[in-house]
Amino acid sequence: MVYFLQQLLNGLQLGFVYALIALGYTMVYGIVRLINFAHGDVFMVGAYLGFFALAVYHYPFPLAILFAMAGCALLGVIIERLAYRPLRNAPRISALITAIGVSLFLEYFSSLKFVFGPNYLAYPRPFEVCIYQLGSVCISNIQILVIGVALFLLLFLQLIVKKTKTGMAMRAVSYDKDTAKLMGINVDYIISITFGIGSALAGAGGILYGIAYPQIHPFMGIMPGLKAFVAAVLGGIGSIPGAMLGAVIMGIIETMCSAYISSTMRDAFAFAILIVVLLVKPSGLLGKREVEKV
Amino acid sequence: MGLILGPFAVIMVLISLGILNPYWTQIIQFALIITISSLGLNLIYGYTGQFSLGHAAFYGLGAYCSAFITKNLHWGYFSFIIGLLSAISLVVVVSFLIGLPILRLKSDYLGIATLGFGIIVKVLLDNADALIPPLGGSRGMLGIPKFTSFPLTYLFFVIAIIVIRNFVFSNVGRACISIREDDIAADCVGVNTTKYKTLGFVFGSVFAGVAGVLYAHLYSFLHPSNFDFLKSIDVLLIVVLGGLGSISGTVIAAIIWTFLLEGLRVVLPPQILDWRLVIYPLLLIIIMVLRPMGLGSGMEFKFLRTSNDKRER
């Protein structure tokens, strides 16, 4: 039982990191219907920016996370401007292929020697690890930090989307782009903002991931990126609570599978569950069913 | 006929004269193998409109199945034939079982489900040695007999083109195209969409399986990472760059794609060789931004068109 609770906690930690990435996917998909394959690599860039902030410039942790988030937000906006905006009215598959191109570009450009280099780097921790005893379950300050920061950012995002004018515009654009334009919303600006916020969250996810699993390399974004996307689909893409729910489920399944079955099989289980959920509920757990139009 | 035999004769002469060294011959064969696999995906995505991101899984299943058989049977080319037939049967069974439920999903959701299937197959191949040790698991499978030669690959390439062309212009192919255009409308006029979607999917996957068989016996070494998610993406890139639903486009894009990746290796000076894989995605982005429909969309060589098409033009 203690072992189970311990694994549950580890699963939550992983799940909240996935949630930060999944939110970017779900927001972007909700607005422009694009699977932004490069999102996982923005997460990787966030981890590297955090690495430089902590290990090279010796920033304190709160400043480092802001640095990573700002850097990634900028990157996200630039990617949108250069690679996706020209394809706004092209077939969706062209935008998808472009996203794959951007993803490969970020991976291989980052592994060039004068950028980040191809090697694995050990991640610096901003403070000593200490472990607290909660009954018979151990919780480390790293876990508290990861879950705490992630929860804070998620609530903050919910607040932006629900309470601010920009958030309202974002919801309007995702509902109907053309009508939103008629209502005087600057659609291009809103899409840029969405990419910026989503990428900033991925950047925060990157630095938290680096602190929790202290090793980074230029290709680290592929798998977490895919899984976060799967989490967004699992929860019902376009829905912010859905992305969080899906991500936490993914994190827990993965950790439980490593703990009880086999760590090499965990990806297979995660994706098998995705397929089953899609077959039973094609729009995801919290997604709305789309009406078929003839 | 000349178009089929011409390139074959030219390459055979170049090989026998020693102008094409074994390295380049191997690359030509690899290009043809990728073409066969891409033609399969073009059938699934380009003609039937079903977005599949798990094509490499069938490529891998075919490769592993056939390699396992030829490694254990020592009957020369006869064991290759048995390996090929069993690989095809395995791919048919698996793609049917996975396609029947999964193809109810639409567009991106289908893509994600097939992507998941591809990753599951890759993980299973990684762990295959726990059940069947000769498959090698994550260490890779060694010592597969080399059967794939240039004439053999070329033969399969030609067969693939002829089969696809005839499929597309058959009644079944027309049903598939109607599903691509609008599956609800196709359903309304009496096309059994489930049947034809599954048929197209199984048929397209068989091409991937055959390509896998040729691949396994070309390099005589298999590793699960040769069949991961990125390999499915490669084929998707080729199909989209070539133009959806264009046989000639797919063939040309597959060959250009292979030679671009290898050509950059030869052309670039060693100091900036690392840039090879940076230039390639940049080219991809630029091509897509400039020509969003793919390079050869709607274009087809004359001998691949039907008499109907000719009348229209």
Notes on the structure:
The complex is a heterodimer of chains A (about 290) and B (about 325). By secondary structure, chain A is mainly alpha-helical. Chain A contains eleven helices and four strands, in the order H-H-H-H-E-E-E-H-H-H-H-E-H-H-H. Chain A has helices at about 1-30, 40-55, 60-85, 90-110, 140-165, 165-175, 175-180, 185-210, 220-235, 240-260, 265-280, and strands spanning about 120, 130-135, 135-140, 215. Chain A has a two-stranded antiparallel ribbon with strand order 1-4. A two-stranded antiparallel ribbon of chain A has the order 2-3. In chain A, helix 1 crosses helix 9 and helix 2 packs parallel to helix 4. The longest helix of chain A is centred in the first third of the chain and has 31 residues, at about 1-30. With about 325 residues, chain B is mainly α. Chain B is built from 13 helices and no strands. Chain B has helices spanning about 1-15, 20-45, 55-70, 75-100, 105-125, 150-170, 170-180, 185-190, 195-220, 230-240, 245-265, 275-290, 305-310. In chain B, helix 2 (about 20-45) packs parallel to helix 6 (about 150-170) and helix 2 packs across helix 10. The interface of A and B includes residues 108, 222 and 278 of A.
